[in-house]
Structures are given as C-alpha cells and as structure tokens.
Design a protein that fits this description.
Helices cover about 40% and strands about 15% of the residues. With about 475 residues, it is α/β, with parallel strands linked by helices. Among the domains are: about 250 residues, Alpha-Beta Complex (Amidase signature (AS) enzymes), CATH 3.90.1300.10; about 80 residues, no CATH class. The strands form two sheets. An eight-stranded mixed beta sheet has the order 4-6-5-10-11-9-7-8, sandwiched between helices. It binds glutamine. Glutamine binds next to loops.
C-alpha cells in the first residue's frame, strides 16, 4: 500500500468510509510529514497539531456513532488570510503577525461544519500581493520540485503543501492568478470559482471586486468535492451569489463529445515559447481524442488586462489596507509620540515594500485629477475585457490557454524587476477582471518541471471546467507525477 500521505482527498474519503483508516491515523501521518518537511519548504506559518489531533478524535467518534458527514475526518489546511477563530491569522504580514482572529471565515466554518480536520495555516505573499511567495514576512516558500525555485504566489504555501503531500487539500485565493499560477508551478490542480460563488466573509481583503476564495488539490475530482463544501450564499458577503450549489461531482464523467474549446489567438502568439506551446498541444490532443473540437477565438483587449489590473487592484488595496493603523489590531509601533506618529510608524514598520508600493500606486490612481485618467479608464477596459469573454463564450464551452508563460523561476530571479513579476499573470488576470471561473490543471513536465493549462468557463460554469479536467486526468497521468527527493 502507498503511504497515507500519497492519497488524494477523494481516496482518503473512501478509506474513511470503508473504515480502512481512522482520521487519527491520517491526521498523524500528515502532521508527521509536515514536521519533517516544513523546516526546508516553509509552507506552514502555523501548525495546529493539538487542535488537529482533537478534531481527528472527534471525527473518529462521529464516524463510529454514525453522525459523520461524507467528509468527516479528512485533513485540510488554510491560506493564512482566512480568519480562524483563536488561531493566528497573519496574511503573511508583520502588521498582522500577532493577530488572533476572533471568528472563522465563512469558508473555514463550512469546512469545520463538514468535519474536516484543519492542520494549520499556510504561507503566502503579504496581503496576497505577489507571484512568487517571496513577499511573505515569514520568508519564501520553496518549490518541492526544485527547492531553489519559487512555488508561485500568492497562494504558494497552499500549492507547495499539496505538491509535497503535507495536506490533501488547501484553501487559497485568487485576485489575479494566485490559485492558478502556483498550481501550475507545483503540478497541482487549482480552481478559482466565479466571483460571488464563495463567500469572502472573513477573508482578509486585497482587492474586493477581484478577490475570490478557492482550492488547490491533486485532482479535479478533489476540487469538485471541496467546492461543493465551500460554495453557496452567505448573507455576510453582499456580493455572494444567491444561486443553488450543484453537486460538482455528478458531471465529472460526462463525455466531452461535442464540447467546443476556444483558443484565443492572443494566447497562442509568438510570445508563447516552444516548450510551453508543445505542452499545451499535448493537452489539446487529449481533449480532441476525448471528442472535443477546437475553434480560434479572439480576446481583443486581453493585452490591456495587466495594466488595468495594476490600477484597479492597488486602488482597492489602498482603501482596504487603511484599516491597519496600529490602533485596533495587529502590530503597533513602540512608544509613539502622538497619534500621527503611531499611524505612520506602525504602517511604515508593519508593511513590506511591495505592499507599500501598491498603496502608493493605488492612492495616486484614486486621487483627484488622476481618478478619471487612471481608475475610470481601467474600469472601462475591464468592461471591454468582460464583453470579449462573454462574446467568445457564446461560441465555445471553455477557453483554453497556458496558465503561465514559463515553468517556475528561481528564488530571487525577478525580485528586482516588479514589471517582469507582474507579467507572470498575463494569462490569468483577465479571468478575474471578467469575474469568471478559471482552473489550472497539470500539463506535461517541461525540463522536469510542472506546467499547467488553464480552462476558463462561463459564469457559474465550474462544472464544465471540472468535467473537462477530470476527463483529461482520466486519460493521462500528468497529475500523478510527484516531486522526487522529499
Ligand atoms: N500576482 C498578482 C498580484 O500580485 C495576483 C495576486 C493574487 O491573485 N492575489 O497582485
């Protein structure tokens, strides 16, 4: 038998149901692996061993009493921007390095209610700003495939923890690519649901009109189970959609015959390098062998997505982050002379440099005289991008592209060049601007490193994405490849 930690979320679910394994055995196996590998990978900021062992015991009792849900006893870990009652929630920042949340985020409470066992809180770029996880106050996360490389970001801890088999499922968030890009860099499956599908209540805000909670796991099937758990209306988030939650696992085995896959010509131009192109072609061949057809589409304004995003996201961030002032919670500067000194020094000392850069850009873009030139213009571009996607999705079921321009880059490689870091999200940000669901799934390795392909679907079309990815995973073993040497 393979090790317990080799099992996927869906496989663990079956083992618990058959009573072949107890939650205590499973939880102990994951915690022991975390303890041995976390010092070098730095994926967890907080490991909640005692709480996890207690929930595992409760889960085993519920299973033997017959009061368990279908998911009771399976481990999960949360990105450290989901508030967790009584447990440190840092958002990867010094300014929240002592913040113990007084309540659970909606996503966390849904997982608890289902009986999942939380192993702890995962490392991330500070306030979810970044594409490499190097912006964390708690240090960079290392990619389990090559520890000299980044795991992607901002959900780098979530992606690396799943890839290294430290947890079978992790929560994550995606504002411009932070679930899909790290999933691609670590050989995992990641899903950013439609804006409004998953409540943002208790998720520390970066750019509220773009932020969306989602998941990283080994397979599309695992994501289908997890999404069913965390999706659904929540009156505490006014943008949460009042739509029923389908059983995402029900359609996984549907045939792809007759499905039309749109290939944006702007994604398959000369900028896509040959190795990435070949990896994408290999996936397309599988989709076609499963009965899908392809059609060329055009996303006319997609080249403007990065510039529009880097106005809108910092503008919203500058407003959202104004609440961190050293007064109500978090880090407070020592011996302030007056209230202004308290604000200034708490923020100067508490925020890292990328966060400060975004606050400055955002404040500038929103200032009188520049608002129309930058913020309003960016919002107009956003509308054009959304219209492009909706027009394209009238002629196809899914839009296909690479998740990232390349495989994982080296730690330190892009630190001094913020623009090249921002371009990491060239294929992913438009989906957020359009508010649509997007997933990244394992494509063939390139030079021994993982790559990912991206599927974007119509609003609330998560099932269509998961069905296609599940079918590809049934026909291939790219999602079974593991980082060696751990
Ligand atoms: N890399 C992008 C940024 O730095 C996206 C981050 C995210 O999706 N949270 O803003």
């Amino acid at each position: 038998m393979s090790d317990i930690t080799d099992l996927s979320f869906s496989e663990l679910k079956k083992m618990l149901q058959k009573k072949s394994l107890s939650s205590t055995e499973i939880t102990t196996a994951f915690l022991d692996r975390i303890e041995s590998l976390n010092p070098e990978l730095n994926t967890f900021i907080t490991i909640t061993r005692d709480e996890a062992m207690q929930s595992a015991k409760n889960a085993d009792k519920a299973i033997s009493r017959g009061t368990a849900t279908a998911y009771t006893g399976i481990p999960i870990a949360h990105k450290d921007l989901f508030c967790t009652d009584g447990v440190l929630t840092t958002c990867g920042s010094k300014i929240l390095s002592n913040f113990v949340a007084p309540y659970d985020a909606h996503v966390v409470s849904r997982c608890k209610a289902a009986g999942l066992v939380s192993l702890g809180k995962l490392n991330m770029d500070e306030f979810a700003m970044g594409s490499s996880n190097e912006n964390s106050y708690f240090g960079p996360v290392r990619n389990p495939w090559d520890k000299t490389r980044v795991p992607g970001g901002s959900s780098g801890g979530s992606a690396a923890a799943v890839a290294a088999k430290l947890t079978p499922l992790a929560t994550a968030t995606d504002t411009g690519g932070s679930i899909r890009q790290p999933a691609a860099f670590t050989g995992t499956s990641g899903l950013k649901p439609t804006y409004g599908r998953v409540s943002r209540f208790g998720m520390i805000a970066y750019a509220s009109s773009l932020d969306q909670g989602g998941l990283i796991a080994h397979t599309a099937e695992d994501l289908a189970h997890g999404l069913g758990l965390i999706a659904g209306h929540d009156s505490r988030d006014s943008t949460s959609a009042e739509l029923p939650v389908p059983d995402y696992t029900e359609v996984l085995s549907d045939s792809l015959a007759g499905k039309v896959i749109g290939l944006p010509k702007q994604f398959f131009d000369a900028n896509l390098n040959t190795a990435m192109r070949n990896a994408m072609d290999a996936v397309l061949d599988v989709l076609k062998s499963l009965g899908a057809t392809t059609v060329e589409i055009s996303l006319n304004h997609v080249a403007e997505a990065i510039p529009a995003y880097y106005v809108i996201a910092p503008a919203e961030a500058s407003s959202n982050l104004s609440r961190f002032d050293g007064v109500r919670f978090g880090y407070r500067a020592d011996k302030p002379t007056d209230v202004l000194d308290l604000y200034e020094r708490s923020r100067s000392e508490g925020f890292g440099s990328e966060v400060k850069r975004r606050i400055l850009i955002g404040t500038y873009a929103l200032s009188e005289g520049y608002y129309d030139a930058y913020y309003k213009k960016a919002q107009q571009i956003r509308r054009l991008i959304r219209d492009d996607f909706n027009r394209a999705l009238a002629s196809c079921d899914l839009i296909f592209g690479p998740s990232t321009p390349s495989t994982a880059f080296g730690i330190g490689e892009k630190n001094s060049d913020p623009v090249s870091m921002y371009l990491e999200d060239i294929y992913t940000v438009a989906t957020n601007l359009a508010g649509l669901p997007g997933g990244s799934f394992q494509a063939p390795l390139v030079n021994g490193l993982p790559t990912g392909y991206q599927l974007t679907g119509p609003a609330f079309g998560e099932s269509i994405i998961l069905n296609a990815a599940y079918q590809v995973q049934t026909a291939t073993d790219w999602h079974r490849l593991n980082p060696g040497g751990l």
